[in-house]
Request: fold
Amino acid sequence: MLSKDQCVACGHKGTVTFTNRSFAIAHKYVTADVHGISGVECSHPECKEIVFNPDDGSAVRYSESLDRLIARYRGHEMRRIRGKLGLTQKQMVERVCGGGHNAVSRYEKGEICVPTPLWVLIVLLDKKPELLAELSMKI
Ligand SMILES: [Zn+2]
Reply:
């Protein structure tokens, strides 16, 4: 059983409570800052494990910020890959994504995250663009 000031990762006795801290987060080349986070941090110099406070929404806000960051990254990459494939947004819907006519626009703006199965397909098309000839949502 861990004591209240014991690190959940390494067992070191000595955690430090923090409040209102800002974190720089990154996913590939996309970055953002998350402000006003509280939690506890292990004081062991080789550990520094951080547990966000679940009670004031810090853990959820940090997680949601990461989700938005991934949505932005996937949207940016989708735009780049669509350009590489020479497709308009409408053609991307018809041949690759399916869905409503605004779906690609919303993905590329990072308003909604590209679902993982579609993301896998897009990454494959980036690596092997010749596979586009095999695709048609109309089949
Ligand atoms: Zn630790």
Remarks:
- The chain is about 40% helix and 20% strand.
- The longest helix spans residues 58-85.
